Amino acid sequence: MKPSPFDIANPVRGVLSRPWCHQTIRLLTLQSKYLAGALVLAIGLPQISTADTIVYSSFLSGTTYVCCAGYPVTGPAASNVGVLVGQSQTAGAFTPSGNFILTQIDVAFWFANGPNTNGFTLSLNQDSGGVPGTAVATWTGLAAPSQFAGPSSLVLSVFPAAMVLLISGNQYWIVASPSAANTYAAWAINALDGTGVGGILAGNTGAGWVVQDIPFDTLGFDVRGTVVPEPGALSCIAAGLLVLVAARRKTNGGGNPPTG
Questions:
Q1: Is the pLDDT assigned to residue 192 strictly greater than 80?
Q2: φ and ψ at 174, to 5 degrees?
Q3: What is the rounded (10 degree) CA torsion for 74, 80, 84, 86?
Q4: How far apart are CA 2 and CA 192, in angstroms?
Q5: Is 104 exposed, middle or buried (0-12, 13-18, 19+ CB in 10 A)?
Q6: C-alpha separations of 83 from 55, 79, 119 in Å
Q7: Is the Cβ–Cβ distance between 92 and 174 less than 8 Å?
């Protein structure tokens, strides 16, 4: 029996059997007379998903939230009206619904002035038994801004210095920690009246993390990333290129090198 045009090699039969892959390869085959154009087409296909995607967001819309209430990020010497507050970390959890390469994190913070300072550190942490675990990326030198009460879209944005892969279904934590003994910053919640989405957050005052599942008005932040192409899509591109090369070799009489 004459083999199917797509039955060119055993290793790629499983991929080639998919209808969407057939369509991709037909496009490449039709372009085989114009090798440069076909290669541009093939190389461009896996780049369809390179734009930033919202992996998670608790903001009302865009990066909007309502200031000013939130959870403390304080150092051991921070005080409120002359009373020591004590050290506190705050963390918010999220779980990607797909595989992403992290590109950006936006957080909503505010600072109430006074004798304290506003510096803090942010980190992306793996989950460890339902609480923040090992940090996979850290950003220092951040400063919570002074704000007025009411709607705000003022956020602090951080960007990874190296590639960070977010795995589908794995819970991660954004952790805010004080950077000075007298830091007194606040991680703003997304709303004050129950209209904001809920989420999982945690606080640590030195005795370990305490986790809460807030039904509404949780910490304001978002996580952005680029979609990691599925292995099947990359295999299809590779298979398509094999078809294109085979077609070119046939057109050129088997691809034998010219003799002088």
A1: yes
A2: -100, 120
A3: -20
A4: 70
A5: middle
A6: 40, 5, 20
A7: yes
Position of tokens 């006074």?
Answer: 114
Query: Quick one: CATH architecture of 59-219?
Result: Sandwich (2.60)
Rounded to 5°, angle at Cα 221 from 219 and 225: 150
The alpha carbon dihedral of 212, 213, 218, 219 has a sign of positive
C-alpha 201/C-alpha 90 separation (Å) is: 7
Q: Which residue type does 227 have?
A: V
Q: Which residue has the tokens 């691809």?
A: 255
Beta strands in the chain (DSSP E): 53-57, 65-67, 70-74, 79-80, 83-84, 89-94, 100-107, 109-111, 119-128, 131-143, 150-152, 156-158, 165-166, 172-178, 184-188, 197-204, 209-216, 221-227
Degrees to nearest 5, angle at CA 173 with 229 and 157: 75
Indicate if the pLDDT at residue 215 is higher than 80. Answer: yes
What would the two tokens of residue 12 be? 């790629």
Alpha-carbon distances of 101 from 33, 229, 230, rounded to whole Å: 36, 10, 13
Of the candidates 199, 157, 166, the residue with the CA atom closest to the CA atom of residue 71: 199
Summarised one tens digit per residue, pLDDT across range 35-78 is 444 343 444 444 445 678 999 999 999 999 999 999 999 999 99
Alpha-carbon span 28 to 39, nearest angstrom: 8
Question: In the numeric block, which tokens belong to residue 148?
Answer: 């007025």
- Where in the chain are the domains? 10-49+230-251, 59-219
Residue 242: phi, psi to the nearest 5?
Answer: -60, -45
